[in-house]
Structures are given as structure tokens and as C-alpha cells.
Write a structure and sequence with these properties.
The protein is mainly α and 77 residues long. Helix content is 71%, strand content 0%.
Length: 77
């Protein structure tokens, strides 16, 4: 991605962020609900006996990435 695209993305993201006004209690409920769902999915992955340890970690990483949670570069292979 080139620098112009990156700058445009940041500008649009900032515009959207500045327009969103969610009461604090609603924001917490949204975050808590999302986190609980992700934890439940992680629990199911760990319970899956067909996965070896590597496959379980791979599935968890994929789950986090699908939810736009950065896993860093260690797993980028």
C-alpha cells in the first residue's frame, strides 16, 4: 500500500472516529460482549481434541485476526 492510501485511510478513520458518540456504558457492553464471544470461541478451539497444539494455536491466531486483533509479527510465517 502506498503512502497516499495510508494517509487517506487514516484521515477517513479519524473522521469516522470523531463522529461516533457512544455512551460509555454502551461501549463497555459492546466490548464485553465481543470479548466474551471471542473467549468462548477460544475455549471451543482448545476443547477440540482433533487439534494438536500447533493447530490449536493456529486456529486461535486466525480467530483473533478475523476479529481485527493484532497478533504481532511472531506468527507471520
Amino acid at each position: 500500500m502506498n503512502i497516499n492510501t495510508e494517509l487517506l485511510k487514516k484521515y477517513v478513520a479519524d473522521l469516522i472516529t470523531n463522529q461516533i458518540t457512544i455512551p460509555e456504558f454502551e461501549a463497555f457492553d459492546i466490548i464485553e460482549s465481543s470479548a466474551a464471544k471471542i473467549l468462548s470461541e477460544i475455549q471451543e478451539i482448545i476443547k477440540t481434541i482433533e487439534y494438536d497444539d500447533f493447530q490449536a494455536v493456529e486456529e486461535i491466531i486466525c480467530l483473533l485476526e478475523r476479529n481485527n486483533l493484532d497478533c504481532g509479527g511472531r506468527h507471520d510465517f
